[in-house]
Amino acid sequence: MAVEEPRYTVLVSEPPFEVRRYAAFTVAQTQITGDFDAASRNGFRRIASYIFGDNVQAEVGAQRKISMTAPVTVAPESEGWRVHFVMPSAESMQTLPKPLNPQIQLRPVAEHETVAVRFSGFTTQTSIQEQTERLKAWAKTKNLKLSPTAQVARYDDPFTLPWNRRNEILIDLMP
After folding, report:
1. Measured distance CA(87)–CA(11) in Å, rounded
2. pLDDT tens per residue, range 9-34
3. How many Å apart are CA 140 and CA 123, to the nearest integer?
4. What is the DSSP string of 70-90?
């Protein structure tokens, strides 16, 4: 079964690196403290609860399920981590149900450009750091100005064999 991903256009492709222009989308996000693995697990559970029905649709006062999308993204924050799911493209801030958990926020993300590097395996601190440095070095050769925060994007469920996993480091370009 195909899982929807945010829409983007590839502007530059030098595998495993890309420059992408993402269309605008909406995310459900939460802030989590703890180490990367604990924050990833707890953030995923919190937002999964929202999309599985821990919400209320304003017009009808009922809960509803929202389709799962990929990737699940984790980024460092000043005090912990931000975990987010991109909402399906058919949804908007106006159509999404309200989270019942006050620790979940809905947020629009404007069209933007990002650099990406794709890799497989586990997203360990070492692999994240190595891939982030590779991406920054590549972007420097292209004279691209990067935002300071790298995001870890994971596309597969935890049961996918490590060599079949699709992971990415994403860093937004400065306008």
Report:
1. 23
2. 999 999 999 999 999 999 999 999 99
3. 23
4. S-EEEEEETTEEEEEEEPPTT
Sign of the dihedral defined by the CA atoms of residues 108, 167, 39, 46, in that order = positive
pLDDT digits (tens, 9 = 90+) for 105-163: 999 999 999 999 999 999 999 999 999 999 999 999 999 999 999 999 999 988 899 99
pTM of the entire structure?
0.93
- Going by the DSSP 8-state scheme, the letter that residue 4 receives in this structure is B
Read off the pLDDT band of 1 (50, 70, 90). low
User: Which residues are 74's β-sheet partners?
Assistant: 83, 152
Buried b (16+ CB within 10 A) or exposed e, 136-166: bebbeeeebebeeebbbbbbbeeeeeeeebe
